[in-house]
Amino acid sequence: MTVEPPPDLIEKRDRLLDTLRGYESCAVAFSGGVDSAVVAQAAYLALGDNAVAVTAASASLSPVERQAAVELARRIGIRHELIATDELQDPSYARNAPDRCYHCKSELYGRMRQLAALSGQKILANGANLDDQGDYRPGMQAAGEHAVRSPLIDCGINKAEVRQLAAAWQLPVWDKPASPCLSSRIAYGEEVTPGRLAMIDAAEQFLRVRGLPEVRVRYHRGDLARIEVPPSALPQLCADGAREELLAELARLGFKYITLDLAGFRSGSLNAVLPMAELRKIAQ
User: Fold this and answer.
1) Is the pLDDT at 1 greater than 60, yes or no?
2) Is the domain of 87 the same as that of 200?
3) In angstroms, how far is the first alpha carbon of the chain from the final one?
4) Judgement on whether residues 21 and 160 belong to the same structural domain of the protein
5) Which pLDDT belongs to residue 24?
6) What percentage of residues in the chain have a pLDDT greater than 70?
7) Do 21 and 161 fall within a single domain?
């Protein structure tokens, strides 16, 4: 069962479906987040069995997120492929410069292109929305180099409208917080390793099961954890008992220093250390 979106969004929804029908067949880069879920749902409605959702399976994707993507694809009905990607074997990725995402997406889109050639998909598509154009997204350069389409951008659909479409299609992720890959938690210049990714994932899952869905555990030099939660949740982590439990668990995971960021949760906070001139240079 679907619910009609607001009238001003119906035209964009129909344009999205028409755009995807024009692809004739496509493979959608599918992380399980709200953006890629809307594109996957639209692709399935428009193309049926000629659409496939593709999820990269590597140490940079939490096993919890991977399983959630599997279940969401099943709910949508779209054919789903998990493909192994080896971005951590690429020194340009592992060194964790600000263009890390470029190398990750290049690996993903290259593997997707191979899969599409075998299974007959003509077009590769991602879930980038209109608002992503105003952010630092080196992965968009990789998308351009691999001729990956961004149907949400092409149809003028922003993040708020993506969530409205997801709610209208009754996708359970319509209000899901953004959840970029685990590597995005590691400070630039610190090597991305499977061990560090596992530490971050376990720490975040520990906090989520304690009622903190919006959380980032940032890894800094010297095995330092910088925890970001909404400011309203800071007292919860500082309370007697909870603080000791948190310290003990993160120390067990391998963190030597555990800190709370008083500025609170904010996406992309690691980009704050980069001068705007450097971001523009990298993006060119």
Assistant:
1) no
2) no
3) 44
4) yes
5) 97
6) 92
7) yes
Q: Is the same domain home to 156 and 215?
A: no
Expressed as residue numbers, the domain containing 79 is 7-168
Distance of CA 30 to the CA centre of its chain: 9
Q: Which of 82, 83, 87 is nearest to 69 (CA)?
A: 82
Please state the pTM of the whole predicted model. 0.90
230 three-class SS:
coil
- Tens digit of each residue's pLDDT (9 = 90 or more) over 201-232: 999 999 999 999 999 999 999 999 999 999 99
**CATH code, domain carrying 39:** 3.40.50.620
Which residue in 176, 142, 156, 165 sits closest to 33, CA to CA? Answer: 176
Confirm whether 173 is domain-assigned. no
**Residue 271 to residue 93: CA distance in whole angstroms:** 16
DSSP 188: T
Rounded Cα distance between 250 and 118, Å, is 44
pLDDT tens-digit map of 240-283: 899 999 999 999 999 999 999 999 998 766 766 665 444 444 43
Please give the tally of structural domains in the chain.
2
CA–CA dist 170, 163 (Å, integer): 10
From CA 284, how far away is CA 267, in angstroms rounded? 23
187/258 Cα distance (integer angstroms):
15
Using DSSP, state whether 227 is helix, strand or coil.
Answer: strand
Residue 216 near residue 228, CB atoms below 8 Å = yes
Q: Please name the residue ranges forming H helices in the chain.
A: 7-23, 34-47, 63-76, 91-94, 100-119, 139-145, 151-154, 159-168, 194-208, 234-238, 242-253, 276-283
pLDDT in tens, 56-95: 999 999 999 999 999 999 999 999 999 999 999 999 999 9
Q: Is the pLDDT of residue 139 over 70?
A: yes
